[in-house]
Write a structure and sequence with these properties.
Elements lengths: L2 H4 L8 H31 L1 H8 L6 H41 L2 H16 L6 H35 L2 H6 L3 H14 L3 H19 L8 H18 L5
Helix pairs in contact: 2-4, 4-5, 4-6, 5-6, 5-8, 9-10
């Protein structure tokens, strides 16, 4: 398959024209509404705390700060790592929505990646930004509807399933990641043959506590990016 056939959904407009349109008409509104909704979301998070404090239920500040430090020491690296690592597939719109709505690795990333694949656009391009954003928006609407139905129906259905079927749901996320890896492997088998054993080594080092868990994703993302760039420069890959 040629490059033109693979990315049949790319706009014929010159790159400079695309950038001009996106910078003038698209990104300003996305950042405006994205920042507004993010700030509203941040305020809403504190409403339960404010409500409990009004009722007189609030821990001493030293205990609250200590609890925050304990949690932040584990999750703080992901505040930086995940937005950088996922941005190439999520795009600006997808990043705002994904980090507000959640379910990034098991829904937003696969939805955005598959939508861009089907639409024939390149990840990280302006076309990919729009297609991925629309896909993530649609996924949020579907998730809202399905979650409502699941709360009513699925809970009762799961209760009727045998234990073996219920335990199979534990493999849902690894299955999704495996499917994504297979999808991108078809684009470049050589890089996939490097990424897979590298991932095994990184996961092993994480399991053995040789490296912290929060470094596994950046090692893979930036490590494979560096390897890919080096291979293209040395013309090992085309």
């Amino acid at each position: 398959m040629t490059e033109e056939e693979k990315y049949f959904g790319m706009s014929p407009l010159p790159l400079e024209e695309k950038k001009k349109v996106m910078d003038k008409e698209y990104y300003p509104k996305i950042h405006l509404y994205g920042m507004i909704t993010s700030l509203i979301h941040a305020l809403i998070i504190f409403l339960p705390v404010i409500y409990l404090a009004a009722l007189g239920y609030f821990p001493p500040w030293d205990k609250a700060i200590l609890a925050f430090i304990n949690i932040a020491s584990v999750v703080a690296p992901y505040w930086i790592i995940e937005p950088i690592s996922y941005f190439g597939i999520l795009g600006v719109t997808g990043t705002y929505i994904a980090f507000l709505a959640g379910n990034i690795s098991n829904m937003r990333l696969p939805v955005s990646a598959v939508a861009q694949e089907v639409a024939g656009v390149r990840e990280g391009s302006y076309e990919g930004e729009i297609v991925g954003g629309l896909a993530i928006i649609a996924s949020q609407w579907m998730l809202t509807i399905i979650s409502f139905l699941a709360a009513i129906i699925v809970t009762g259905v799961i209760a009727l399933l045998p234990p073996a079927a219920v335990e199979a749901f534990d493999w849902l996320l690894p299955s999704i990641w495996g499917a994504i890896f297979a999808q991108f492997s078809l684009r470049n088998i050589k890089l996939a043959m490097i990424a897979f054993p590298l991932a095994l080594v990184v996961v092993y080092l994480g399991v053995k506590a040789i490296i912290p868990a929060y470094l596994e994703i950046p090692i893979m993302v930036f490590g494979m990016a560096a390897i890919a760039i080096a291979c293209y420069r040395k013309k090992i890959l085309k």
